[in-house]
Specification:
The protein contains twelve helices and ten strands. It has 381 residues and is an alpha+beta fold. The longest helix has 37 residues, at 233-269. The chain binds flavin-adenine dinucleotide (FAD). Flavin-adenine dinucleotide binds at residues 92, 125-129, 134-136, 159-161, 203, 206, 211, 360, 363-367, 369-370, 373.
């Protein structure tokens, strides 16, 4: 099913441009990126040339000045490359590590880091999670201490996507341990800074992306690399999470839809006990239930996108959508692997890959329980 989200001729034309790129340049290399364990950096440059990397960003910095509906179209199409890791690596760059820089960064910082990122000349990563603090963001310990005009950074960050590919990190660090939620800052840290090193981690899924553990030992960057005001990092990161979560919702729905379509095709061809699997009533019930769940998740996601396009705060809806989409994607993957039988368990099967890849959605970018925790607070419970 083609999305009807804001189906203007501009959206349709943009969708066709992305689809062509995905079909001709991304999908043919999907398995190669699994083997590499990361995306070829040249691909970011190509997406920069095509104007995909700064869709919502100001033209002044090389962006396209479009709205969230175009970001939704981009990821609905990128998901078709059939490599969740690749999709995640790209979305980290476009929607997880750069939104704060665009919204709050100084002009000098945007000129130095955002412009090349939008062109795809550099790749970014977001560094929030630490070995001892993930869901509890305010519990992070990585410390940036001011020495003259520099920050000196010590600590570690883990599970960082684009670890080996990134040229710079959007780091969340403690700049004033006594200031509570006013004691954090977002700081741009080039990955070639002396004292910064990483180890790659081995994941059960999302093989097309590189995930790593970073160590900061007296890493020195200018205080001018602070995004926005010193002490506003926690609040800015909470806002940045909204884009991260919404892109996860869009990708989950598009991925589930694609897997559903493929599984229907498989069930039509697979004959057992003298008839196609798709003709068994129990199979039809499963397909209908899955499509109902996918549609419900899509409508909630689109409601979030519409709010974002209208410039409204969608934190509550995005938290709900993240919860719903993560659970839906896992359920669809589980049903689809079952419907594929033994073949579903093979590494080459899309259902098998989805089974491990979708598991991340309910953990990364705020676990299901984190969403429930926020929602309970927002609902005044
Ligand atoms: C493949 C991958 C890529 C990632 N990429 C990045 C990245 O690029 N940058 C980055 O900064 N981080 C990244 N992460 C980290 C991810 O965001 C964290 O794993 C996630 O936020 C959960 O944190 P944690 O792993 O420390 O789990 P913990 O915080 O230890 O949580 C453990 C479990 O506790 C439960 N829980 C959470 N909150 C509550 C609550 N309020 N009440 C009850 N139970 C609760 C949940 O089930 C949760 O999963 C990535 C993770 C993975 C696996």
């Amino acid at each position: 099913m083609v999305s009807d989200l804001f189906g203007t001729p501009e959206h349709e034309s943009f969708r066709q441009t992305v689809r062509k790129f995905v079909d001709q340049e991304l999908a043919p290399r999907a398995r190669e990126f699994d083997e590499m364990g990361r995306i070829d950096k040249a691909l970011f440059r190509r997406m920069g040339e095509l104007g995909f990397l700064g869709l919502r960003y100001d033209e002044k910095w090389g962006g396209a000045d479009l709205d969230w509906s175009f970001s939704a179209v981009l990821f609905e199409e990128i998901v078709r490359c059939d490599n969740a890791g690749v999709s995640m690596g790209i979305s980290v760059h476009t929607d997880m590590a750069t939104p704060s820089l665009h919204q709050f960064g100084s002009d000098a910082l945007r000129a130095e880091f955002l412009v090349p990122a939008i062109r795809g000349e550099t790749v970014s990563a977001i560094a929030v999670t630490e070995p001892d603090a993930g869901s509890d963001v305010a519990g992070i310990k990585t410390r940036a201490q001011r020495e003259g005009d520099d920050w000196v950074i010590n600590g570690s960050k883990t599970y960082i996507t684009n670890a080996a590919t990134a040229d710079w990190l959007c780091l969340l660090a403690v700049t004033d341990p006594a200031a509570g939620h006013g004691g954090f800052s977002q700081i741009i840290v080039p990955t070639d800074s002396p004292g910064l090193r990483y180890d790659l981690l081995d994941k059960i899924g999302n093989w097309g992306s590189d995930t790593g553990l970073f160590f900061f030992e007296k890493v020195r960057v200018p205080v001018a690399n602070t995004i926005g005001e010193v002490g506003r990092g926690f609040q800015q990161q909470m806002m940045q999470f909204q884009d991260e979560r919404l892109v996860a919702c869009v990708s989950s729905v598009a991925g589930a839809q694609l897997l559903w379509e493929r599984t229907v095709e498989y069930a039509k061809e697979r004959v057992l006990f003298g008839k196609p699997l798709s003709k068994m009533q129990v199979t039809q019930f499963k397909f209908v239930e899955m499509m109902t769940d996918i549609t419900a998740a899509r409508e909630l996601t689109y409601a979030c996108v519409r709010k974002r396009v209208a410039g409204e705060d969608a934190t509550r809806e995005i938290s709900m959508a993240k919860l719903v989409c993560g659970r839906m994607a896992r359920k669809v993957a589980d049903e689809c692997i079952q419907l594929h039988g033994g073949y579903g368990y093979m590494k080459e099967s899309a259902a098998g890959r989805a089974f491990v890849d979708t598991r991340l959605i309910s953990i990364g970018g705020g676990a299901d329980e984190t969403m429930i925790h926020y929602l309970a607070k927002m609902l005044g419970l």
